[in-house]
Amino acid sequence: MKILNxxxxxxxxxxxxxxxxxxxxxxxxTLLDGPQRTCELESRVVGLSQKVLIEQLHALEEHGMxxxxxxxxxxxxxxxxxxxxxxxxxxILASLMEWGAxxxxxxxxxxxxxxxxxxxRER
Length: 123
Hints:
By secondary structure, the chain is mainly alpha-helical. Helices cover 47% and strands 10% of the residues.
């Protein structure tokens, strides 16, 4: 059964389901820098295994957030890039990061927050 057949009917639940998971938002945020090969994504996102990366990319592809294209560099392999639908998440991801920081401050847990660079390496 495809993932799309299992998405909730309520819009807010649908949005949360598409973004749910440990790595999807991080992968989407990383792809905001432009198309990247699997090996580049794997090396940029600290703690993300290749197996989980592939699973998450396939789920995001099925949700219409990313697409694969032949690699532009050497013609071998593929790279992943955001679709227009995936790119439309940029302000939402920024808002979620802002709200997450606000939530931590309100609960006196700001000291537990990590900078993005702790998880995503520079390109």
